[in-house]
Write a structure and sequence with these properties.
EC number: 4.3.1.19
Helix content: 40-55%
Cofactor: pyridoxal 5'-phosphate
Protein name: threonine ammonia-lyase
Strand content: 15-25%
Organism: Streptomyces orinoci (Streptoverticillium orinoci)
Number of helices: 16
Family: Belongs to the serine/threonine dehydratase family.
Number of domains: 3
Length: 417
């Protein structure tokens, strides 16, 4: 799905001023010199063939701390006064912003405290600690951690580092846009994930200031799409309960600073489903050999969902690669199922000697690989002479899945799911 964004004049530059300037982004680039990496821009033959023009992947998943977040965090902390630095900084995050603040503060010699939800993935907690932050687990969701961090700032005088709603944060993230123009001067469309809006807003400022003809497309998860209703209302609108596996863009309300920029400079906001996110993550892993988190794969999901809607050359920003291994396992399985390469079935058979072997014999002729099998003989739902089998199969596409179901039904096995 897609939504148009604010009206612009004929040149593509908005009539109203935006809260972050090209000069601020260029200043941020100087501040980050020698600190952050100029991440690679990799071509994708598969996506290029699909879209019909060159597609490049901007690999912020290979940035220090595994995401673009360190850019804005470093610029924000670097601009603090000596007294503010002495008071320390505090942040709240479930992952990427936490690690970015921790590393940035350590590099600048500033004490940092990061509040994280109690259910945050252990690898992200460990990484944040290893980058030098004091980690405090509080609450079940990031909003609760955020309230705790703000209270800590009020009580101690520490400076609260917002993940996206500050001009310095947006300027730092905008350095990605400058790099894109340097690496791909012929770019026609930039596609970027959209959560609170800091990255999309920063890229939009950098790119539109120098190349107003380039389209900027923001991508949100359908279950956490706060920008479409906010753009319709003309101001940030909060979602009651954003839900998506893409925690990097699971933001319930746009930031005031990035919203003002997105409204004026971003050309379109598109939404993608969970299935499309899973498929994009799988494609990045298999075709590009890149580990990308669901939020980072959202631009690829948008390209896969509507390849004909993007004028090339296209740059898709892979914003991060900090994916929890357990989530990766679930997402990959989900992505394989969405692509027809993984099939889960429940069926019933007569409980007699050799019945399971006969079922497996049918499967052996179907060219499906049995990954796992569960055989239940005692259950209140089953008749005395019945058994239930749950099968997990590796398959070769949707047509193969349909043929496999038909083969089982013809062999007399009722497929329950």
């Amino acid at each position: 799905m897609a939504a148009r964004v604010g009206d612009k004049d004929a040149s593509g530059i908005p009539e109203d001023d935006v809260p972050v300037t090209l000069e601020a982004v260029r200043g941020a680039q100087k501040t980050l010199s020698g600190v952050t990496r100029t991440t690679a821009l990799e071509g994708s033959r598969h996506l290029s063939h699909l879209v019909g023009s060159p597609v490049h992947l901007k690999c912020e998943n290979l940035q220090r701390t595994g995401s673009f977040k360190v850019r804005g965090a470093y610029v924000r902390i670097a601009h603090l006064s000596a007294d503010e630095r002495a008071a320390g900084v505090v942040a709240a995050s479930a992952g990427n912003h936490a690690q970015g603040v921790a590393l940035a503060a350590s590099l600048l010699g500033v004490r940092s405290t990061v509040f994280m939800p109690q259910g945050a993935p252990l690898p992200k907690i460990a990484a944040t600690h290893d980058y030098g932050a004091e980690v405090r687990l509080h609450g079940q969701v990031v909003d609760e951690s955020l309230r705790a961090a703000r209270e800590y700032a009020r009580r101690t005088g520490a400076v609260f580092i917002h993940p996206f709603d500050h001009p310095d944060i947006v300027a730092g993230q905008g350095t990605v846009g400058l790099e894109i123009l340097e690496q791909c001067p012929e770019v026609r469309t930039v596609v970027v994930g959209l959560g609170g809006g800091g990255l999309a807003a920063g890229i939009a400022v950098a790119v539109k200031s120098l190349r107003p003809d380039v389209r900027i497309v923001g991508v949100q998860a359908a279950g956490a799409a706060s920008y479409p209703p906010s753009l319709r209302a003309g101001h940030p609108v909060a979602l009651a309960a954003p839900v998506t596996m893409a925690d990097g863009i699971r933001v319930g309300r746009p930031g005031e600073v990035p919203f003002a920029i997105v409204r004026q400079l971003v050309d379109e906001v598109r939404t993608v489903s969970e299935d499309q996110l899973a498929g994009a993550l799988l494609l990045c892993l298999e075709r590009a050999k890149l580990v990308v988190e669901p939020a980072g794969a959202s631009p690829v999901a948008a390209l896969l969902a509507a390849p004909g809607r993007f004028e090339g050359p296209v740059v898709a920003v892979l914003s991060g690669g900090n994916v929890d291994p357990l989530l990766m396992q679930r997402v990959l399985r989900h992505g394989m199922a969405a692509a027809g390469r993984y099939l889960s079935l429940r069926l019933r058979l007569t409980d007699r000697p050799g019945a399971l072997a006969a079922l497996l014999d049918v499967l052996s002729g179907s060219d499906a690989n049995v990954i796992d099998i569960s055989h239940v003989r005692t259950d209140p739902r089953l008749a005395l002479s019945e058994a239930e089998v749950e099968l997990h199969l590796e398959t070769k596409g949707h047509e193969h899945c349909a043929a496999l179901r038909a083969t089982l039904r013809e062999a007399g096995y009722p497929v329950l799911s």
